[in-house]
Amino acid sequence: MHPNLLGADLSILYFFNSFLSSPFLDLLMPLLTFGGTQVFWVILCLILYLLGGEDEKEAAFIALTALVMGFFLSESLKMVIARPRPYEVIGWVRHTTVAGGYSMPSGHTVAAFAGFISLYFKFGSPWLFIILASLVGTSRIYLGLHYPSDVLAGAVLGVLCAFTALKIEERVKCFGLCRFDRLQQH
């Protein structure tokens, strides 16, 4: 990594992880980070699919597709990049929890952006969903589990997965409609 980028990474990490630390944020940030877990997204997608209408079912399909892609891509990248987590190599990093695996990209951030951007496609309110996903990423920095560049990479990967999943959903939907139209013509 370029020295200037590493310096910016460390400065931002210090700001969120040490300078902003407070008992209130120590309680809030673990709650926010839950929005980036696969468990959260599987439960939310099941609820949307089982209890929702057509838009909710489509949103659940897009989100689950994006999450699966994001999981496999982020885990593959982690193995290739093999970047240790900040708390493992920097003495001043506070952390309230220990995470396994490597740091780059942030899997929680991938999941948050993949999921929340998928919801935006069907429900609108882009700023609400971007803010929610960004809060998950910020929580990962605050908790000392990721560098800011890990979170940025996770956000980009999550958005790309969401857009790819939207295209997949459009193709699946079109295929289903095209087949239905052909069946009615006979």
Descriptive terms for the model:
mainly alpha; Vanadium-containing Chloroperoxidase, domain 2
CATH class, please?
Mainly Alpha
Radius of gyration: 19 Å
Sketch the major β-sheet: none
Instruction: Give the overall shape.
Output: elongated
What's the helical proportion of residues?
over 70%
Q: Tally the structural domains.
A: 1
Residue fraction in strands: under 5%
Query: Which fold does the CATH topology refer to?
Result: Vanadium-containing Chloroperoxidase, domain 2
How many strands in all?
A: 0
What average pLDDT do the residues reach? Answer: 87
By helix and strand content, what is the structural category? Answer: mainly alpha
Order of helices and strands: HHHHHHHH
Describe this structure as you would to a colleague.
The chain is mainly alpha-helical. The protein has a single domain, classed as Vanadium-containing Chloroperoxidase, domain 2. The protein contains 8 helices and no strands. α4 (54-81) packs antiparallel against α6 (107-123), α4 (54-81) crosses α8 and α7 (126-142) runs antiparallel to α8. It is elongated and about 55 Å long. This is Undecaprenyl-diphosphatase. The chain crosses the membrane at residues 27-52, 59-81, 151-168. Residues 59-166 form the Phosphatidic acid phosphatase type 2/haloperoxidase domain. It holds the Pfam family PAP2.
